[in-house]
Design a protein that fits this description.
single chain; 323 residues; alpha+beta; OB fold (Dihydrolipoamide Acetyltransferase, E2P); D-amino Acid Aminotransferase, Chain A, domain 1; 2 domains; 5-stranded mixed sheet; globular
Length: 323
């Protein structure tokens, strides 16, 4: 039986009235509910994961505090692509799995003509549609019509022993060979375009363009990298901002046009820092805010002198580890 508890709002007057916050699942109950609703598959995929590229490494060389030269970053050694804000999906030749090994319940037609070769990629709709994508992809009962908006954007061949520059060409050939029952290309099965850049100025300009159009950032994959499980310095992600997660512990009422609605949420990080996040929410989210105890993802730009994230803004609720 899930535990239910009653939450009070910090720093809030009596006019602040949410009908839905009187009864909330505790974080423990929410985790129990999640584990029961999403069964694991037999084998969790061993995925290659990216490391963040610190901005100081965008120079030809960079120095540590002891004035020692570290590795030289050379952009021509990498193939670069847009970082898609989707849901990681591993095709094992028979079914789609999330990064934690959960079965993705896609309609049969979606993967019926996929190759038997394992693929690594992202399920994606378009920029700014992550929440809609989550509702579609993580539903145990697939909505056939909604899935027609989803594409499987493939960026790697996990079982190929070739370096990435060769795997990328193998991937293009493989995807182009796939056909439906009418011998037409599979529009929802695509390879992620990668580019070879001549200099850092082009990389920075591309990053600025992506960021200004609500994109996530860029991925840089070393041309000679082999596919390995776990994080590797040969697969890098580059953003103009930082992302992190925190747990909602309370609310504050809004002012002005947000009177009677949620104005900001109080959150606690894994390092026990507590602070408010008041931007990034739409009106519907302010009227029905994320539950206390839920985990949210937020975006920020550096830290204050007190170690609090600067310009923190809400991005999304992390409903489960695969979202």
């Amino acid at each position: 039986m899930p535990l239910i508890h009653r939450q009070t709002l910090p720093h809030c007057n009596n006019s602040f009235n949410f009908q839905q916050i009187n009864r909330r699942l505790t974080p423990i109950a929410a985790l129990i509910s999640l584990s029961l609703s999403f069964p694991l598959s037999a084998a969790q995929p061993q995925l290659m994961l990216a490391k963040s590229l610190p901005s100081e490494q965008l120079n030809a060389a960079y120095y540590s505090d002891d004035n020692q030269i570290h590795d030289i970053f050379t952009v021509t050694d990498y193939l670069v692509s847009e970082k898609l804000d989707g849901i990681r999906a591993y095709w094992n030749g028979q079914q789609l799995l999330t990064k934690t090994g959960n079965i993705i319940h896609a309609p049969t037609w979606f993967y019926a003509n996929f190759p038997s070769t394992p693929l690594d990629g992202e399920l994606w709709i378009e920029r700014g549609q992550f929440q809609a994508l989550t509702r579609i992809v993580l539903d145990n009962e697939p909505d056939d019509l909604a899935w027609k908006n989803v594409n499987y954007m493939v960026f790697d061949l996990p079982h190929s022993s070739a370096p990435f520059s060769d795997r990328y060409h193998q991937l293009q050939v493989l995807i182009e060979q796939q056909r439906d029952q009418n011998n037409q290309p599979l529009k929802h099965l695509q390879w992620v375009e990668h580019k070879s850049l001549d200099n850092l100025a082009i990389l920075v300009q591309w990053l600025d363009i992506i960021s200004s159009h609500d994109g996530e950032g860029l991925m840089l994959h070393h041309k000679s990298n082999n596919y390995t499980s776990g994080r590797t310095e040969h697969l890098l992600k580059l953003k103009n901002h930082h992302d992190a997660e925190a747990i909602i512990i309370g609310y504050e009422e809004g002012n002005g046009k947000y009177q009677g609605m949620m104005g900001s949420v109080w959150v606690k990080t894994a390092t026990n820092n507590t602070f408010k996040i008041g931007s990034g929410f739409n009106d519907q989210q302010r009227q029905t805010p994320p539950a206390i105890g839920s985990t949210i993802q937020y975006r920020y730009n550096g830290y204050t002198d007190r170690g609090i994230p600067r310009f923190a803004r809400f991005i999304r609720v992390r409903n489960n580890p695969d979202s």
